[in-house]
Design brief:
Length: 467
């Protein structure tokens, strides 16, 4: 038996929604005869005592914990606690940070296994091995410790997305999740869930993770629509937060999904908080997205420096992205622009050019992040390899921190934060932006969301500003 545990963490107050990683893994395991349970400590009643009781009563022998870098301290703390209560319990980690540095997790002394990449196949094979009393050697993607030595497992076997079962939303009490604040944009309906229609992105942006590989793998439009309709009819979902890696990579597939939503009369709201590419649109797709219920999307431009577009391998056609923003505005879809400042070797003039573009662009919302070369990203390996020029020892030290920032004497972090705050001030004091925010203050929930957003962007620690 396996339990997936999401530990309580400070960031949970900003990412409160269904644990997509767990419901995808659970569905795959359930199809193979296992009975996984999901214990989400975002809810107050899921206390350590409650978790321990469920593990004991259900005879659970393996606990899975997924985490990003910002969640690592709480994930390790919970793993240590679980080990103290039940020394025979096995702990397996997965997700962005463990995939980026499996050795760090294993050497903590409280993690038995790490799965690098997509976990369905490797996790099922691990459970099979444990259940049959045999060793787990040779499982692709499974890293483990033996006699104080890390046994590498490479990257996990990538499943055929068409063969995967429908995510196990039914293992969750969705009514509870509907009461939480959305981690993304202002909702049109409280009955909202996160949802994916594909995995992987063929673009090579060096600051991004590679958990889902650099290949686009999209579900067939009919499969997407069937899953959506099931959630609408059976669970009363009224809004979908599409968190694909790149929803619009195949334009005709994206259009077919939108047409299907309209034809099936699903009457839903849609938002795309991170999964569209700005220069992969035509106006027909944006019009169809609006007709299907889209009210918000985020477009990541990052930098207007052609030099850094090339260095970080994004290679965005900036004018085409601007055209997409104009089309979205024409059809009544709100757009948030994502930008990054503080790339290794970036000059003050390049930062100012990016922020000037961001402030003047026809956007409704703005997010400016300080560059963070997280473990497992090509940006980090490029920096270590000297691809941005010679780095100082202090710069190398800076990228070893939990929340890494680039050491650039010409652009110290405090200067970047001042430039970031000034850009926010200039952008959000524009009449259009002020009016847009004012129109959203229609409930206490939205007031809280706005307060949290302002706190993270302006008043809280620099860790709220990295990306």
């Amino acid at each position: 038996m396996i339990a997936f545990v999401r530990p309580r963490a400070p960031l949970n107050r900003f990412i409160q929604n269904v644990p997509l990683n767990y419901i995808h893994l659970a569905a795959y395991l359930r199809e193979r005869g296992y009975e996984p349970v999901i214990l989400d400590a975002v809810f107050d009643e899921i206390t350590p005592r409650y978790i321990d009781r469920v593990i004991r009563e259900r005879g659970i022998t393996l606990v899975g914990i997924g985490c990003m870098t910002c969640e690592l301290p709480q994930a390790l703390e919970e793993a240590a606690r679980l080990k103290r209560v039940n020394p025979d319990l096995r702990i397996v980690f997965g997700g962005a940070h463990p995939s980026g540095d499996p050795e760090e997790c294993l050497r903590s002394g409280v993690v038995d296994y790490v799965i690098v990449g997509e976990g369905e196949i490797a996790l099922a094979k691990l459970l099979d091995a444990l259940g049959e009393g045999r060793d787990s050697d040779g499982i692709r993607g499974l890293w483990q410790m033996r006699d104080g030595r890390v046994i590498p497992g490479g990257s996990a076997e990538v499943p055929n997305i068409a063969d995967l079962p429908r995510p196990a939303y039914d293992l969750l009490n969705l009514e509870q999740y509907y009461t939480l604040d959305s981690p993304w944009h202002f909702l049109r309906s409280r009955r909202a869930v996160q949802f994916i229609t594909e995995r992987g992105c063929p673009y090579q942006c060096s600051y991004c993770h590679e958990i889902h590989t650099k290949k686009f793998r999209g579900l067939a439009a009919d499969t997407v629509l069937d899953q959506m309709e099931w959630l609408v009819r059976q669970h009363g979902v009224r809004e979908f937060m599409i968190v694909d890696d790149i929803f619009n990579f195949e334009l005709e597939r994206a259009k077919e999904i939108c047409r299907g939503i309209i034809a099936r009369d699903l009457r839903i709201h849609l938002q795309f908080p991170n999964g569209v590419r700005g220069d992969c649109f035509d106006e027909e797709l944006i019009a169809l997205m609006k007709q299907a219920g889209t009210h918000y999307m985020a477009i990541a431009i990052e930098t207007v420096s052609h030099r850094f577009q090339k260095l970080v391998r994004k290679n965005l056609k900036i004018e085409k992205a601007r055209q997409s923003i104009e089309w979205a505005r024409k059809h009544g879809i709100e757009v948030c622009g994502f930008f990054m400042i503080g790339f290794p070797g970036e000059t003050l003039d390049e930062v100012r050019a990016t922020l000037a573009f961001a402030v003047k662009a026809p956007l409704d919302l703005l997010l400016v992040s300080i560059v963070a070369p997280f473990k497992g990203t090509r940006l980090r390996t490029d920096m270590i390899a000297g691809n941005f020029g010679e780095m100082s020892g202090e710069g190398l030290h800076a990228i070893d921190q939990l929340f890494p920032v680039v050491h650039n004497p010409a652009l110290p972090v405090e200067l970047l934060l001042r430039l970031q705050k000034r850009a926010y001030w200039l952008f959000y004091t524009r009449p259009r932006a002020l009016l847009g925010l004012g129109l959203k203050i229609t409930s206490l929930r939205n007031v809280r969301k706005l307060r949290h957003a302002l706190a993270r962007r302006i008043w809280e620690s620099r860790t709220g500003s990295v990306n």
